[in-house]
Here is the input.
Amino acid sequence: MARREALGMNVLDAAVARMAEVYAAGHRVVVSFSGGKDSCVMLEVALMAARQTGRLPVEIVYQDEEVSYPGTYDYVLRTFKRPEVTGKWLVMQMPQINVFSREHPYWWAHDWALRPEQWVTQPPDFAYWTRKEEPQAGVDITVMTTPFRFPPPPGKRLYSAVGLRAQESRTRLYGVYKARGHLVKPNKLGVYGIRPIYDWTDGDVWLAINRNGWDYNGAYDTMYAILGRQRNLRIAPPTQNVLGIAELRMAAQAWPRWFDKVCERLPGVRTAAQFGRRAVDPRRNLGETWEQAYQRLCIDEAPEWIAARSIELRRKMLSAHAHHATVPFPEIRPCYNCLGAVGSWKRLTFAMYGGDPFSVKASTRLPLVEPDFFRADAGKWGVNGAAP
Here is the structure.
């Protein structure tokens, strides 16, 4: 693995230099903007680099996720109104995960089957509705910057600038090492990536915002006042994983009217906020083995789509285990020769209790659950059906 090296400059100057190099080469750069703290500093870095190289205005792309904390929409709208900023506000109407509902694991942002007044938030008049403008694109929540939306100049590249930081997870750190720096090879659409703030810490982010007087999402102030910590303040939709329960409880206290509307929109959210992990984690009965709990919770009492996946995963795991072991499939301590993440009955139960529609915990042993499995008109994952 490559070692870390000191650059002899502060992280802000380094980030601006990385962006300025791409701007100066004449490439088209689009900043992925979420309204969070990382995309805030990513945008300001891009603005500084664009001023240095005569490339204003800076282009941004924002995906409207509908269930955004109060304060996020206000901040994003202010950003789009800045004279030195231009771009697209995307309404992609994508299926998103709701880990708090076993029956309805997906929900659709700005669902076309609902009346607009039933949505939690309303997009602005200038929003770009992708289902109407790009019916050929398929369902790909991971790709906002595309050559169709942002064609690059002849002979130049299209870059997607993201506020990814290696401090946030080991996976992101390894990704930086693999890429050997801030530039990323082109994706399936030929779009290159640039991650100029990959070496920033949380402290760097807030120090830069404070010292430079940059505008930012006011929801962070509310979250910090209630949660009382600086790290792990998340603006992402709180239904994507169970770690969002703390944010849901905070939101119920901070924005009760908004929280009530979210609860009407998304089943299971209120229960999760009231009862915490007990509402979403499997519970084994007294005297029951984890193998018996798997049968009861993930097959006998589970929704049909979860039961079918659990039966198939059990078959594959037991078959794989039999090829390298003579002992039974373990109850608690995992067999890492099978698959460490789900190598025991207990881990299988926790992995499949919610169905794992993205096959995150079950790895490649199960296919993704396509959106059109739940709704015939919802399409398949990825551009032209490719997996996200």
User: Anything to note?
Assistant: Residues 304-322 form the longest helix (19 residues). The two ends are 28 Å apart (CA to CA).
